[in-house]
Protein 1
Amino acid sequence: MKMPSHLHLGYTSTELAQSPYAAFFRDEMAPLPEHVKEALLTGGQAYELFPLVDHADELLEPGYWPLETGFGLGPDGSVQVFVLTQMPKVTPAMWDWWFAWHGSEAQRYKLWHPRAHISSKWADERSDLNHYIGRTSKVVEYVGPELLSLTIRFVAPAILGLDEARLKRQGEVAICARGGIAGTPMETGWLIHHLRPVEGGCEMRSRFWLGGNNVRPRGMDNAIGKLLGGVAAHFNPLKANQGADLLVHCAQEMNHLAGILPALYKKFGPHASA
């Protein structure tokens, strides 16, 4: 897509001077973690190493999956991308707050990935709500060199089979959503960002299941939807470079925001002083 004339990357000089978030806007980004570099050097890996979305409930078990960072192609034209991010001094609750807070303004969204994020707004056009589940975020962002206009429909973890009572007992958060391409009738994948406490902070285990058998027309999670989604996926198979680009994008944005999230949460979070 072509960049709309009213949108832009980064903060303008006026925004840097006037935005209440300008102190948190850092256009310099840290190098990729070594385990992400290793995953990129390895390249695409065997499809069988990536449990499908119907195994999402297994994220709540102790330990790690056989592969936590990497990407692979499925025989159905799908791409799976997994990313592990360590986040010192960050809590799962901070991320739960972030996903409700950032979607109302582009300036907030750009803090997350200053070199890729362009615009964010809620489809319901509400900026006064403090939750994200049941709402759809409309974003414009670069993933690799490609500029995309996307929809992210947040759903309750239970939709993907996660035990919400267990999540709460374990002090964990799972951000779950259905992704799609704006302006089309299709939803093209699932994502989960699972956060669990570790010593000194938390870790995020991101999972993306995109394309292939994950494609459905919006609102048609039935046999007809599966058939139509399969036809759409057949003519639009995803490629390895798209998996690599998403892996880099996710690793960059999660590491970057983790570095400023504690201060952001203190300044603007639910317990911020007036």
Protein 2
Amino acid sequence: MIANLLTVGNAVCGFIAIALMATGPRLAEGPPVELKWAAWLIFLGMVFDMLDGRVARSTGTTSELGAQLDTLADMITFGAAPALIVLQMHRLPEVWPWHLPNWVLWCFCIAYFLGAVLRLARFTVENVPDESAHLCFKGIPSPGAAGLLASLTVFYFYLKNFKHPELVKWVPPAWKEPLQAFADVIPGALPVLALVLGYTMVSNRLRYAHVVSRFLSRRTFDAFAYVIFGLVLLVALPEITLPVVFLVYLLSSPVQHLAARLRARKAAHVADQK
């Protein structure tokens, strides 16, 4: 019961995020704060998503209903809501130099949403009963993809707040204009990133670590130290820490895949020389 309530909490976060973007934003008046709160709601849904399965297993209340409910909730919070954020962010006035045709924008957002749907459907079919033995994913998990899009949205609003003097005491004056220029690039780049994430979610070649299961399986001092250090950074500078973490996670699998291919090619070259 408690686990299902947590799953419902995840779905409610996604619904509220979508409702905020559907009823609140006035894009012609500048960046609407509703987009930022919608992004934060995706992270709140992520917390519910991390807790529901573990609560169900610890209380012995796992069920087929809970698994299907979890998939539907993820589809709302990590599929539909991020796609709508990308759609609305790209319509901001600052995007005009990078503006995509409306039909291309819709295609990119739909591609992300379909990638999330297929990713979640495959995970539901292939999911193992004991998630602690599940140490990696085929393709980036939908919360990871949604987290990157949401974190860049939060980072965009953080950079836009640099016009407030009390928020920029630690920023060198020479950095302010480049950071403002970088902020204006984010809404224009989000649709392309969403398209890449849509493919990455359904890729069979890329393997992504199940971070929580890896941590619980190790439980070493180093692992706890990394977690504590990350939590400190997350509390102190969440707007900067979140996009860095999710971007590193996105790149981790392609980098490892490329490194493995280079090692294999080098080993084959050495074998040929012998």
Protein 3
Amino acid sequence: MFHCIDIRPATPDDAGAIAALMRMGVSKTVRLVTILGSPNLTRFVADEIAAGQADEYTVSARGTDVVGVCVWRRIPKGVQLNHLYLAPDMRGQGLGSRLILEGLRRHQATSDLRLSVDVFFDNPQARSWYHSWGMRREQHLKWVQIPLPPLQSLENVRCVITGLSEANERHSRYGFSQLSLSTPIARYAIGRLGDGLFRTTSFSILQDPAALQSLARIGFQRHLLCVGSVPHAALARMESATVVAESERLVSSSAAAINYLESSVSARNRGLRQSSI
């Protein structure tokens, strides 16, 4: 059936179909804690593709219909598979393997690379598939939601917020944004998701009252979402903390992934040829 499937670079005109596949491919929980829940996701994807400077979008198309999307990000000494989503009627037929193979072969043109992918625990089918390649877990991440403390006097609170004006503009356009917050203790990258969440990858912010008070001052109605590896004992000590999601980062060499996927695609093709005899 793949003779009618075209794999090509995405264009801004594909953004609506790509955003629909992304939303369809994750749970409601994941949409709530990531940018995939933004009502302006299509605008963001279109702008990303048009700029061509960050993530790399590849689509599979059946005629004029986009039925799959794969999104790559180059990182130091490696490549990250940021997204892979297929239309429901295209799943389980080898299209995902073809999309990933196309990207890995292109990125691995000069040397073997480290491949990484993040997958949520509420998607056991995807987790099982990636593990079947021989990918190993590098991190177990917990997504922990915590209410911000009540507002207090800003006296003696030393904090510098950088990029707020630009973040407000970006938030107005996309429904999410990022800013930087610095205190005498540390500097934090802070994401904003919709009207309800701040997000950070630093659990140490919970021990920084100046940072928490500054966030409460920006958006007292928001909760803080901390994402990272955290021991169960430490989690138990966090007052009013709720684990809303869990994910894992899987890694392998790109060469090993290519070998596995090429074997998988070849076996599938042999089966299709035999069934047609």
